[in-house]
Amino acid sequence: CCDFFFFSSRRRHTRSSLVSWARRCVQETGTWGYILMSNRYDAAVTRFSPSGHLFQVDYAFEAVKKGACAVGIKTKDSVIIGVERKATPKLQESSTIKKIFQIDHHLAMACAGLTADARVLTERTVLECQQYRLTYDQPPTVNYIAKFVAKVMQRYTQVGGRRPFGIGSLIVGFDQAKEPMLYLTEPSGSYSLWKACSIGHNSKNVTELLEKKYKEGICHEEGIKLAIEGLLEVVESGNKNMEIAYMQKDEKLVKMTDEEVKKIVEAIEKEKQPPA
After folding, report:
1. Whole-prediction pTM
2. Predicted confidence (pLDDT) per residue in 243-273, tens digit
3. How would you write the chain as a 3-class SS string?
């Protein structure tokens, strides 16, 4: 059945021949061969399926869903990002595996998905920040960088011979009015402004927790606690498998130590314990 489809896709066939091929698939595989049919449209990123899908872009979203979870929270005076840190081999230097990147003095990015894609996109973004400063003699806005990242990602969905970026990103920073900003970009090239969001593995459960507990005007300490509480829905080893960073007004990105995260994790777990 597969060989028949491979050769038949190279020449035109009548409706009756396609129907007979479909019946043959049912007899041999017990299904209608949806996956085989999709192969006609996922060979190139620029080809739409009859249902209006770009399968390569859909596959990129699946890569993001399988990546390490990332959480972003905007408070009244800071922005917080947290990422799930995968367990590393005993002999590997864990500091070489990065999920949070500082792309300018007032901007940072966290990614979920393919780490190599995140490195390439981050390097492009850092270069764009430098070029913007040289051209306009002022730092780029958070909106400008979010739009730039989305533009680069969208370009790879319209050019043949390339594939979409297999990452989603959270871009945080402060705008010219010194207000904290949190943007989400997706492999399709779309971007949007959020108060709190999550991407990556098991992000649905984390998002439900954020929707339940996030409050407008939340303070910095409560935001850090909420970010850690959200990641606890995903990680298995508490503070050992998570990384938390935050940015406050007129300050660079600060990464919390494992000891600081451990104290908050213990406080959260203590609150969950039933009273004696």
Report:
1. 0.82
2. 999 999 888 899 999 899 999 999 998 887 7
3. CHHHHHHHCCCCCCHHHHHHHHHHHHHHHCCCCHHHHHCCCCCCCCCCCCCCCCHHHHHHHHHHHCCCCEEEEECCCEEEEEEECCCCCCCCCHHHCCCEEEEECCEEEEEEECHHHHHHHHHHHHHHHHHHHHHHCCCCCHHHHHHHHHHHHHHCCCCCCCCCCCEEEEEEEECCCCCEEEEEECCCCCEEECCEEEECCCHHHHHHHHHHHCCCCCCHHHHHHHHHHHHCCCCCCHHHHEEEEEEECCCCCEECCHHHHHHHHHHHHHHHCCCC
